[in-house]
Specification:
The chain has 462 residues and is an alpha/beta fold. The longest helix is centred in the C-terminal third of the chain and has 17 residues. The radius of gyration is 22 Å and the shape is globular.
């Protein structure tokens, strides 16, 4: 059977990196004997129609984020108009609200949870013509029956080492952009799944933390180096530093391998396990950048969202990373429910006081599948129409805090400008250039982090 895996065709925004999740699905389908194609670039209607005409897929699988749910709905409608393919949606949006996602995005089916095993099973049943009889056996399958939307219990993949590597041959390293890198070609890998933390604004808190074996990770790194000439590995884990023992073992294995690569963790890590030993090991393997989820400078807000961040330790921990030449990017969020202007100002003051290389500042956007979203929905504080307009971390019409949506966006812009114009910024830019960051990637990162986010305006929706 011919399967086309894709991200929503009409989606726009900051596309960084290939899609590891779809890569794993593709590998499972290939193992099952299916013919697979991937499309990860934004397409207009004409190009999508041409792709469907050329590939003639039997099945189209679309990964959906809440931020691109509108684009996903348009993509499904175009697929139906231009082909006879069965459409299936999956991804974080479906996992967060399985029935609601299938109601809002008019695909034939949806799959919630980790689909590494369930999607190949679904595809095989569809190919064999036995899906109608076997659909209740597919974990996480969401389908319509008798006017209702039914949801099978999802599964959590536990044997990560039994999964094949992502289908890198369908998304070769270097063929997809990474906004910041030192050495090209770049590949992203995932060493862990899930998270050990309980943050109420993040869906990862529902997923048990699981580890690939160090040997399995090293095997994939060697494969990427030998097959594709990869020179930089970016760990895309939700919390790369979740286990000190694991990071220690992985760093030592990389050192013993003799591989000379650049490494970073652009999705994030926490600081509990950061000490001189770990920083020395990270520096020793060529690790140069880590994003840190700080979110707020207010202890009250951190407690309310179950962040569990000890603000008093931040200067020490960030100082250790900087001592070993590791760039630190702070992730912050404004507009949590009930947050006051004073509490937001404490976040600004904290960010300006820390030795951070850069910052990301998001407007809090309630995501389905999180505890905070469920609480707000139960209190009637969220729209009920399942149309996620302006659902992104810049333009979301957040009216949950003391500030109006317009005031909140202005506050965010002033926050970013204050950081960008502080005296340490020029020193940081010089440091980044000296460190070997590709100049074009640095310019792109500055544009995406600051300029585009300050001039972007809310859209009218899709």
């Amino acid at each position: 059977m011919k399967v086309l895996l894709m991200t929503p065709a009409y989606a726009t925004g900051e596309a960084e990196f290939c899609d590891i999740g779809l890569g794993y699905l593709a590998a499972g389908l290939l193992r099952g004997g299916h013919e697979v194609r991937m499309s990860l670039a934004p397409l207009d209607e004409a190009r999508l129609a041409s792709l469907l005409a050329a590939e003639k897929p039997d099945l189209v699988g679309i990964k959906v984020l809440t931020t691109n749910a509108g684009a996903a709905a348009r993509t499904v409608r175009t697929v139906r108009e231009c082909s006879r393919a069965v459409t299936v949606i999956g991804g974080p949006h479906v996992t967060g609200d399985p029935a609601g996602a299938l109601e809002g995005v008019p695909a034939d089916y949806a799959i919630s949870g980790e689909a590494d095993l369930s999607f190949p099973k679904f595809s095989s049943l569809l190919s064999a013509g036995t899906l109608e009889d076997g659909k209740r056996s597919v974990p996480g399958l969401v389908y319509r029956e008798g006017g209702a939307i039914l949801v099978n219990p999802p599964e959590l993949v536990t044997g990560l080492d039994a999964l094949p590597f992502p289908a890198w041959e369908l998304m070769p390293p270097g063929s997809h952009p990474s906004l910041v890198f030192k050495r090209s070609p770049v590949a992203g890998i995932i060493a862990t799944r899930g998270c050990s933390n309980l943050c109420s604004f993040c869906s990862e808190s529902y997923k048990k933390l699981r580890f690939r074996s160090v040997e399995g990770v090293m095997a994939e790194i060697r494969y990427l180096v030998e097959r594709f000439g990869v020179r930089e590995i970016q760990f895309l884990d939700s919390n790369f530093t979740a286990s000190k023992d694991y990071v220690r073992a992985l760093c030592r294995a990389i050192m013993d391998s003799g591989l000379k690569l650049a490494f970073c963790a652009p999705n994030g890590g926490r600081l509990e396990h950061i000490d001189d030993e770990i920083c020395g090991l990270l520096s020793g393997i060529g690790f140069y950048r880590m994003n840190i989820g700080i979110e707020s400078g207010s202890p009250e807000i951190l407690n309310s969202v179950q962040k569990g961040c000890d603000l008093s330790r931040l200067p020490e921990k960030i100082g250790l990373l900087r001592k070993y030449g590791i760039q630190t990017i702070g992730n912050f969020m404004l507009g949590f429910p009930g947050e006051t202007r004073l509490q937001m100002q404490r976040t600004v003051d904290l960010a300006l006081s820390l030795d951070l290389s850069a910052i990301n500042v998001a407007v809090y956007t309630p995501m389905p599948g999180t505890k905070l979203y469920d609480r707000l929905a139960a209190d009637g504080r969220l729209p009920r129409d399942r149309v996620f307009r302006n659902y992104n971390f810049v333009a979301y019409e957040n009216d949950l805090s003391e500030l109006s949506p317009k005031e909140l966006r202005r506050f965010r812009t002033r926050f970013m400008l204050a950081f960008l114009l502080r005296w340490r910024t020029l020193r940081t830019v010089a440091e980044l250039i000296r460190s070997g960051i590709a100049w074009n990637s640095l310019v792109k990162r500055i544009y995406w982090m600051y300029v585009s986010k300050m001039i972007r305006r809310p859209s009218a929706g899709r």
